[in-house]
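Narrative of accomplishments. A recurring question from our advisory board has been how the design workflow behaves on a single, concrete structure rather than in aggregate. To address it, we present the structure tokens for one chain from the evaluation set, followed by the sequence designed for it. No filtering or post-editing was applied between the two.
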């Protein structure tokens, strides 16, 4: 299947009944947030997406948008289950590989959540220090969005 630039490959809320392999192009996972659309992750050639459908059979929870012209291989749930009947050994290897992919993604998500939590705590500590030193002439560090001290306030 071919998708043009900015065309949605998956729509949030769409019935999940297939997985996809990005054969060509670049796509992005996007989520609607209060301030607008947020890019969550980039998908590159050869990567698989829509895998959670195999676990929970719930509608897709995120949009996937083609950022360049994309070619996608679509594998329907029925084809995957038919593989189980025809060749359980190949199905088992495929399932193991899917588990490995999902495990790597889960680990990456945990690492990102930990980084965000650390940045939030550091920001709260600096904001508290700034509030405590409003009447004091001691310089207060100021954070950029990536939680690094970029300068001292004077």
């Amino acid at each position: 299947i071919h998708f043009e630039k900015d065309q949605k490959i998956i729509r949030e809320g769409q019935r999940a009944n297939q997985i996809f392999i990005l054969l060509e192009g670049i796509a992005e996972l996007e989520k609607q947030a209060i301030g607008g659309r947020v890019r969550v992750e980039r998908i590159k050639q050869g990567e698989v997406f829509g895998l959670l459908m195999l676990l929970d059979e719930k509608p897709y929870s995120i949009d996937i948008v083609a950022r360049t012209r994309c070619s996608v291989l679509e594998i329907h749930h029925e084809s995957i289950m038919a593989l189980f009947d025809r060749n359980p050994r190949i199905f088992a290897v495929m399932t193991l590989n899917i588990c490995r992919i999902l495990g790597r993604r889960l680990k990456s998500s945990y690492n990102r959540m930990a980084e965000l939590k650390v940045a939030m705590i550091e920001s709260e500590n600096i904001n508290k220090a700034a509030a405590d030193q409003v009447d004091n002439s001691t310089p207060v560090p100021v954070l950029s969005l990536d939680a690094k001290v970029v300068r001292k306030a004077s």
